């Protein structure tokens, strides 16, 4: 090969590399999707308020900064590709922005800095309705966080106190969310509403008292419990996904709390016996949904019967054998 041909070959090879680089440069942005913000809640609140931002593409690529009206939010957690929790800093107010490597998204409306604004915590219900020291209590409501945490750190739930409100209940380690807290009943608890505090400890601002009382079971309780059985439905759809609802068989003030976080077993009839083929728990409304192996046969769902604490009779919380509905 002549010297001229070798030089020409090197020029063509160089042009090929440049063209490939150019193509890669043009294609790279296709993998980076701009984020969007569809809504946020609450729409107003003071310093320390945790705002839930809803949208798309928060992890495609990962959102790296959040600001409110141009004020940087130093503490935020990218919970999923569609949700971010952000803790308001200072007097931040205005349009919310989230930024990833591709672009910046703006909220359709502005956040307003106000105390308490719409950021006061609420308690919808808690379960169980009563118990003694060490009992695990799940609190359901809104605006229940006092810190969003960061992507690498856990969120911090509001301070929970049981009457007489001298001790702060210990969180169990179950991840706290804006709508759910899980705590242990502390020693010395007496009958009374549950108190949750977030950005401050003023009732009506950053604190709330539950509408119903938590009742303490006497240590020597030996009276008969008030039985509250559950009924269930079970439907099997294509590919054998068991889904249905758990509900109390009687109505009353405890009906709602008795259907949340209920353990459910999906069972199949095998050789004259019921064999457990899947298990799950209900959501806050009593619904469950569990995929199971695709085998023909008779199926049922079972859930434990619950005994509720009755303040007037001073009875105990107990459980008994499962009830079920065949399909």
Q: What's the arrangement of secondary structure elements?
A:
Layout: H1 3-27, E1 36-41, E2 44-45, E3 50-56, E4 65-68, E5 71-72, E6 76-80, E7 83-87, E8 94-99, E9 104-113, E10 122-127, E11 130-131, E12 136-142, E13 145-147, E14 156-157, E15 159-162, E16 170-171, E17 180-184, E18 192-197, E19 207-216, E20 226-228, E21 230-232, E22 235-237, E23 241-248, E24 263-270, E25 273-281, E26 287-291, E27 299-308, E28 318-326
Parallel strand pairs: 2-9, 11-19
Antiparallel strand pairs: 1-3, 3-7, 4-5, 4-8, 6-7, 8-9, 10-12, 12-17, 13-14, 15-18, 16-17, 18-19, 20-27, 21-23, 22-23, 23-26, 24-25, 24-27, 27-28
Short description:
The protein is mainly β.
Distance between the termini: 83 Å
- Based on helices, strands and strand pairing, what is the structural class? mainly beta
Average pLDDT works out at 77
Shape: flat
The percentage helix is: under 10%
């Amino acid at each position: 090969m002549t010297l001229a041909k070798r030089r020409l070959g090197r020029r063509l090879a160089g042009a090929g590399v440049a063209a490939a680089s150019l193509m890669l440069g043009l294609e790279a942005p296709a993998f980076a999707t701009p984020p969007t913000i569809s809504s946020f809640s609450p729409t107003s609140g003071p310093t320390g308020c945790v705002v839930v931002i809803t949208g798309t593409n928060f992890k495609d690529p990962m959102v790296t900064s959040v600001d409110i009206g141009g004020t940087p939010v130093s503490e935020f957690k990218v919970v999923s590709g569609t949700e971010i929790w952000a803790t308001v800093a200072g007097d931040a107010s205005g349009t919310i922005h989230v930024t990833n490597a591709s672009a910046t998204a703006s909220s359709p409306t502005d956040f307003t800095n106000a105390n308490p604004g719409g950021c006061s915590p609420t308690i919808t219900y808690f379960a169980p309705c009563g118990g003694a020291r060490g009992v695990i209590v799940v609190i359901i409501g809104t605006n229940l966080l006092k810190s969003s945490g960061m992507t690498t750190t856990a969120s911090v739930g509001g301070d929970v106190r049981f009457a007489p409100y001298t001790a702060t209940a210990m969180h169990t380690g179950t991840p706290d969310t804006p709508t759910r807290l899980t705590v242990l009943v502390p020693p010395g608890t007496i009958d009374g509403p549950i108190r949750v505090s977030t950005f401050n400890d003023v009732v009506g601002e950053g604190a709330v008292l539950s509408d119903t009382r938590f009742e303490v079971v006497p240590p020597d309780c030996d009276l008969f419990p008030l039985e509250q059985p559950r009924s269930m439905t079970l439907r099997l759809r294509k590919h054998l996904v068991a889904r249905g609802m758990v509900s109390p068989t009687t109505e009353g003030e405890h009906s709602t709390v008795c259907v949340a976080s209920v353990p459910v077993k999906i069972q199949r009839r095998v050789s004259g016996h019921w064999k457990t083929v899947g298990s799950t728990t209900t959501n806050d409304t009593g619904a469950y949904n569990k995929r199971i192996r695709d085998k023909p046969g008779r199926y049922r769902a079972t859930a434990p019967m619950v005994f509720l604490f009755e303040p007037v009779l001073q009875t105990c919380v107990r459980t008994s054998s499962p009830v079920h509905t065949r399909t």
